[in-house]
Design goal:
The longest helix has 11 residues. The strands form two sheets. Strands 1, 3, 4, 5, 10 and 11 form a six-stranded antiparallel beta sheet that branches. The chain has a five-stranded antiparallel beta sheet with strand order 2-7-8-9-6. By secondary structure, the chain is mainly beta. The N and C termini lie far apart (31 Å). The protein is globular, with a radius of gyration of 15 Å. It has one domain.
Length: 144
């Protein structure tokens, strides 16, 4: 079987962002791996993404990835302790809430009820895989 190429995705509208959200479902990250650079107007999330596109029936793979949002004007966290840098969070979805066009907010929803609301002047989101994939026997599961 041919090796899958690393993902490099760009989102400039809500439909594009839905593709990135699907690729990031069940990604895990540490709170300390979420960085907002106010002067550069970026928010970056480094994570270990479950490669749903490569998932077999029993095994799976994870890969180190980065999600970067541009044109960020503000970030609000709910039920995420910024002081707990080593705490692990599981990303469930990434969605766009339109505001004054072309801006709005990108909502990152995490398991356990936490979320980040990232205000943006426009939708400018990049997802890129950064490493080689590795096998994992821990396949994410969801209750029906």
């Amino acid at each position: 079987m041919a090796e899958l190429a690393p993902l490099k995705l760009l989102a400039q509208d809500a439909e594009d962002l839905a593709v990135i959200s699907a690729a990031l479902q069940d990604a895990v990250a540490k709170i300390g791996d979420i960085r907002w650079d106010a002067s550069a107007r970026t928010l970056t999330l480094a994570c270990n993404r479950f490669r749903w596109e490569a998932a077999g029936k029993k095994k799976g793979e994870r890969i180190r990835s980065a999600l970067q949002l541009g044109d960020v004007t503000g970030v609000q966290a709910r039920k995420l302790r910024r002081d707990a840098k080593g705490a692990v969070v599981e990303l469930l979805s990434v969605a766009f809430e339109p505001g004054e066009a072309p801006g709005g907010a990108v909502l990152l929803t995490f398991a356990g009820g936490g979320d980040l609301k990232v205000s943006v002047d426009c939708l400018d989101v990049i997802l890129a895989d950064l490493s080689q994939a590795w096998s994992t026997s821990r396949r994410p599961g969801h209750a029906d």
